[in-house]
Every structure is written in structure tokens, then in C-alpha cells.
Amino acid sequence: MDDGSDERVQELMKRRTEYWKIHGEPKPDTKKAKKRNKRVEQKKEERKEEGQLTMPVPSRIKLNQHVKTRNYTVPTLPLEKILLAETHMNNAPGGVVYQLPFQNVNYHSQVRVVDFFPPRVEDFAVQTSSAPLFGNQNGATEPKVGWEWRFCLLVEGVEPKPSKKQPREVMKLYVCGQDGDCLLDDDAFNLRCNPRRLEAIKEKLFLLWGNLEEEKSKAMASGQQSWGPVKSCPFECCIKEYGVQCTHGKDPHVMDVDGEPCTHLGCFGWERRFAMFGTTIHT
């Protein structure tokens, strides 16, 4: 180091000493320094994690690996929260608050099958007919006959209950048409006339609901309305909500006018329904 540089260093040291005499020597660990260091560390962590995917938290519940859903971005909601319908409350102008009868929305949940209808798997498919697009050689338009899945699953949530004595909430999940094709990975057919294919469908459903059919069949044979404990694993499924016209009886003293809403208290003429979709049983 040359003499000029040494003189400049000495001058800086002298000025620093004089400054400290007037304003005081700074403490090594001030609050500002700690906050500044904390902000620096946070920025480092943000830069480090930027662009990385967030790994999902492992589920506490052991799920059925034979049942898979499509890759939807809808978050998983407990069944009880879906039934609660908190998002259906609407605030109208003038302070009027009412609940929407239904919304066309999709959900993703974890459930377990506790019952099904019709009570026999042989009746899970129904015969349908539709008008053909074109007539035959003679010009006649004979209806096209086919088969369609049409059954209902009664499911319950799998989240821990606040109390063991409290019954679980249940939901009717309808499975119809192409949603049934997706679930069973097979087109609908006459189940009563195809025993081999019927047995294959029952084996798939066993993966879905365990020994539920066996226990229910025993109870039905003995004339009982309930059955023993069922061994089955909860599974993930996609649920779609929709609405159908209500089934409330009309007031006979009210004139039947097109578009007239239901006179039942709190009903807008529609009932909330749920159906399974985008879910498949893998063997």
C-alpha cells in the first residue's frame, strides 16, 4: 500500500472516531439489523422455492387404490361441507337473504359406500329406446333399443366425527349413462341374460364397496332391514351437483299455471341432486 492510500485510511479512521464521539458508537445487534437480516433470509428462501411445485400433504386416510379419478384441479372437500351448502347463500338487493336450491358445480371428495339401490345388481341397467336418425328401407322409423346404467349409491363421509354417537351425514350419488360406463369401464347390457358379464361387474363393485352386497343379500334373505359391519375402504370420487324439478305435491286449491313455482315453504321448484362422474374402478 502506498503512502497516499495509507493517509486516506488514517483520515477515514479519524473521522469515524470523531463521529462516534458525537453520536455514539453503534451496537453490534440492533433491532433494525435483525429485521433487515430476517428480510434478507426470507427473500433468499423465496428465491430458492420459486418455480418449485408444492407437494401434496399425505392423506391421513388410507384410500382405495382400485378407484381413481380424473385429474381435476378441484380441491378435496369433506362430504359434510358439501351438504352444508354454505356457498348457496345469496344476498339480494334490499337485504333479502335466501338460499339457492342448487348450483351447477363439481366437487372432489372422499367417501365410503354404505348402501345401494336397486337392491340387486341385476337391476343396475335399464332398457332404453330412442328414435333413429334415419328410417329403414321401407321408410319406417323403428325405435332403437339399448341399455343404460342407472343406479344409486348411498355414501358417507370419512372425516373424523366430533362424537362417536353422532351419525354421519350421507349423500345419494346417482350413476347414470356414460358416468356408469366410466365407473365400471364397461357399456351397459342386459345383466339378467349375461351371467358371466354380471359376475365381472359384481367383482368390480366388490372393489368399490367391499362385502356390502354380501351382507345386504343375507339381510334381505332373512327379512331384515339392516346388516352387519361392512369391510370396505374409502375412495376418492368426483361429484357433480345439479337440480331437478321438485316432487312436492301441488296445492289442489291453486291454479296450475305454467312456470308457477312450488308453493312448498322454502322451495323454489327445484331439488338438489348429486351424481358421480369421472371416477373409474381399476381391476
From TrEMBL:
Q: Which domain of life is it from?
A: Eukaryota
Give the residue ranges for region: Disordered: 1-53
Molecular function in Gene Ontology: G-rich strand telomeric DNA binding; telomerase inhibitor activity
Give the Basic and acidic residues compositional bias ranges: 1-31, 39-51
Q: What InterPro entries does its record include? A: POT1
Q: List, alphabetically, the GO terms of the cellular component aspect.
A: nuclear telomere cap complex
**Gene Ontology biological process terms in this record:** regulation of telomere maintenance via telomerase; telomere capping
Question: Know the name of this protein?
Answer: Uncharacterized protein
Organism annotation: Penicillium freii
